[in-house]
Amino acid sequence: MNVCVKKSRQHLWCSLDETPFQVLDLDQSHGYFWSACSTEEFSPHQVSYFHYAPSRSGKVITEILGDDFSGGIMCDGFSGYSDNRLPEAYWGTCLVHINRQFKRLLDPKITRFQGQSIASDAVRILAKVFHVEKRLEYSSASEKAAQRRQHLKAMIDDFYQLIEEALTKSPLKPLRNAIKNALKLKKRVYQMFKHGELPLHNNHNEQLIRPTTLVRKNSLFAKSTAGAKANAIWYSIVQTAKLNHLDVFKYLETLLSAFTKRETPEIEAYLPWTREIQESCKA
User: Fold this and answer.
1) Domain for residue 46, yes or no?
2) Coiled-coil stretches, from where to where (predicted)?
3) pLDDT digits (tens, 9 = 90+) for 206-231
4) Across-strand partners of 21?
5) Share of residues in the chain with pLDDT > 70 (%)
6) Alpha carbons 153 and 129: distance in angstroms, whole number
7) What's the CA gap between 271 and 256, in Å, rounded?
8) Residues 166, 179: Cα–Cα separation, whole Å
9) How far apart, in whole angstroms, are the C-alpha atoms of residue 145 and residue 52?
């Protein structure tokens, strides 16, 4: 997987996410699986990389990407994803996470409150943004950015004008928190109009990291840090194989057969996007 990661660092890509994972040998309650993946569009290769770390500290980002990463990073609003960590990178943010905070305020179980219509209008605008994004036509990242400026920017401007005006009216705490979160991430939201490589959301990575949650419910924990790191390696291999449309069992059989021989084979020949592997392990 180190070869995949090195190649990935050369791309203008990265989507980051993290999820807790219990390790019995740790003093604290749990560590974390960090997931880094290529974006679905404009990435030469599809890679899913899992990295185990004992903490949720933002310094883990540089462990994954290196100190000099200068591509684009899609992530949610977690404070660990700090510009200070990688000053040469350009950061996007997940509009779905922003939208989710406003949607929660429309839950029928919540007692109606003054300003709830603001949340409704915010959700309506963002829903239209997602709808129009799916219908954009382009053949390159620069064309996509241009299409977004033409068709989406006015809606994003309206969204921020709406919530900025609402904030001046001293909204109740739940709405105020949703607004402040969106305002904190405003600069990152507007990166979509400069960089077509950035998706609007982090859904792709969240789908990739979801199996770790399902496995966690069955296996419950790792005994040691070494076991957690081994888990991360296997998650990386399996999810990268799936992204490259391989039969996972055929691919694992090929890898285990090749790398248990006395002579170590050429690693790059077994990367999941090579012609030979695509032909022999295609799903």
Assistant:
1) yes
2) none
3) 999 888 777 766 676 788 889 889 99
4) 31
5) 93
6) 9
7) 13
8) 8
9) 34
**pTM of the predicted protein model:** 0.89
Domain around 269: 245-283
Indicate the DSSP class of residue 193. Answer: G
Domain's final residue, options 136, 153, 182: 182
Cβ atoms of 16 and 71 within 8 Å: the answer is no
Q: How far apart are the first and last CA of the chain?
A: 21
Beta strands (DSSP E) in the chain are 15-21, 31-37, 48-53, 72-75, 90-93
Percentage, residues of the chain above pLDDT 90: 60
Least Cα distance to 225 among 52, 29, 50, 7 occurs for 52
Task: State whether the Cα torsion 254-259-260-263 is positive or negative.
Answer: positive
Minimal CA–CA distance to 96: which of 199, 177, 21, 16? 199
The answer to whether residue 193 sits within a structural domain is no
Is residue 191 a part of any domain in this protein? no
Residues 151 and 105 grouped into a single domain: yes
Q: Are 166 and 178 in contact (CB under 8 A)?
A: no
Number of structural domains (the chain) is 3
